[in-house]
Amino acid sequence: MKVLVAVKRVVDYNVKVRAKADGSDVDLNNVKMAINPFCEIAVEEAVRLKEKGVATEVVVVSIGGKTCQEQIRTALALGADRGIQVEVEGNAEPLVVAKLLKGVVEKEEPQLVILGKQSIDGDNNQTGQMLGALTGMGQGTFASEVVVDGDKVNVTREIDGGLQTVALTLPAIVTTDLRLNEPRYASLPNIMKAKKKPLDVLTPADLGVEVKSHITLLKVEPPAERSAGIKVADVDQLVDKLKNEAKVI
Amino acid sequence: MTTFEISGADPQLRAQLARQLAAIIPGATLREQVLPQCGDLRLLLLEDYPRDVLDAEASQRVMDNPLYWVLCWASGQVLAEYLLDNPDTVRGRRVLDFGCGSGVVAIAAALVGAREVIACDIDPLALQATAYNAALNAVDLTLAADFEAVDGDLDLILVADVLYDRENLPWLERFTARAGQVLVADSRIRNFDRPPYRRIEQRESCTLPDLDESAEFRFVTLYRAGG
User: Do you know which Pfam families this protein is assigned to (chain B) (predicted)?
Assistant: First the structure.
C-alpha cells in the first residue's frame, strides 16, 4: 500500500512571531522554519505503517518554493522513501494546495493520504477536507488513532464530545491531531540516506492546475498589549475588586 | 581491527578533518578502511558515530553540511571497481572526477595509470578528505573546487552518484560537450533514457559504512557516452 503524506514549511513553533512594521504580513525575515508539527505527526504515522508492513512506500509531497525541499529532506530522514516538490511561488492558499494535491493523488494513486489537520501559520484547517471533496475520497479528520484493516481504515477522531470512530473505504484521507503519535528524531544514517533519496520537482502545469488567489490579506497586526497588573493588599481587597471592578463574582 | 601504514598521509590533515567532523557530529570518529570491492584501495571514512537519534540542532547541522565524503557510496565503489577491472578506460588519459566526495573514483583512476586526474567537488571538506585519501593510496591528484575553472582538454569525465539531485541532470549535457567520453554510475534514476548515454552494465554494492539503504540503491548501473 502506498501512502502519500503532505508536509508544509512553516515558521518554527518556538519562534515568537511578529508582524511587519507596515502591517502587510507576518515578518519571516531570518526566522527559523520547520515542518508544520501536525505534518510531522502525519509523516511519523506513515513511517509507522511502513514499519508494521502495512505500507510499502511512503511518498512525501510539499508545495512551495525550493526552500521547502529542506522539509521534504527532513521527512525523508524520518523514514519516507521519496519526495515530490510542487514548485509554487509564495504561500499558496488551501484551495490551490488541495487542487495540486489532487493532481499528485491522481499521478501517484496512493491508498492512503495523510495530512496534518492544520498548519500553525494560517491555522486554516481546510486542506484535508477540500482534498476529500475534490477527490471524492472518504475523510477521517482529527485522527488520534489510525488502524488499517483490509480495504478499510478505522480512524478514531477527536471531537468536542469525546471520541468518534469512523470506518473509511480505501483510498481515504486522514488528517492528524496532536495525540496521534509522538514523532521521532532522525539518526545520523537516516539523515545521510535522506540526502540522496529521490526528490522530483513538478510544476502546477504538470498537474493541470492554475495557481490563482481567491483571498486578499488586508492587514496583520499584533494583539493589543496587556496592561500591567496590580498588587492587592489583602484578601478583602481582592474580593472587592473581583466583585466590583472585574464583576466576575 | 586492522591498522594501516599511513606514512604518506598527512596526520595534521587527518586531525583537521576529524575536528571538523566532530564539530558537526559530536562523538563521530574517522578511520582508514579498505573497500571490500577495490583491491587495496583505502579511504578515511566514518567509524563511530552516535547510534541514537540526533537532537534537532545536530540533525540540522548534518542536513546543512554536505558530508558526503565520510561515506563511500555504492556508486563510487562500483565505478572505482570498474576502473580497476578495466584499466584501459583511463590509462594515459586526462580524467576528471565530478563530485569526488571521498575521492574514491579519482584515486582508482590514478592507480590504474591515468596521465592526470582532477578531483572536483564544491565541498571544501570533500577536497581535504580527497587530498588525505590520495596520499593514503600514494597517488597524485589535482584538486578543483570549480568545474568551469578547469583548463585544457579532458579525455574522460567520471560521475558517481550525483544524479540523486534532479537539478544536476543538465550537467550530463555539459559533460559530453566538455570531454570525449563520460562514465556515469547511478542507482537513483529508475528509467535513465538520456542519449548519447548508453547502459554498459550493472553491479551490486553498498555504502560503506553500510547505511542499510533500500535494495534498489544497491544496484548501480554504469552508463557511457562517447568512445
Answer: PrmA (PF06325)
Least CA distance to A12: which residue of chain B? B56
- Among chain A residues, the shortest Cα distance to B64 is held by A70
Each residue of B75-112: pLDDT tens digit?
A: 999 999 999 999 999 999 999 999 999 999 999 999 99
Question: What residue segments make up the domains of chain B, in order of their start?
Answer: 1-227
End-to-end CA separation in angstroms for chain A: 58
Taking the CA of residue B47 and the nearest CA in chain A, the distance in Å comes to 12
Residues in A closer than 8 angstroms to B216, CB to CB, are none
Q: What is the pTM of this model?
A: 0.88
Q: Which residues contact B138 (CB under 8 A, 6 or more apart)?
A: B8
Contact A187 B67 (CB under 8 A): no
Burial B43-67 (b: 16+ CB within 10 A, else e): bbbbeebeeebbeeebbbbbbebbb
Contact present, B58 and B141 (Cβ < 8 Å): no
Sketch the domain layout of chain A as residue ranges.
Answer: 2-244
Superfamily per CATH, domain B1-227: Vaccinia Virus protein VP39 (3.40.50.150)
Find chain B residues with C-beta within 8 A of A199's C-beta. Answer: 164-166
In this structure, whether the domain defined by A2-244 belongs to CATH 3.40.50.720 is answered with no
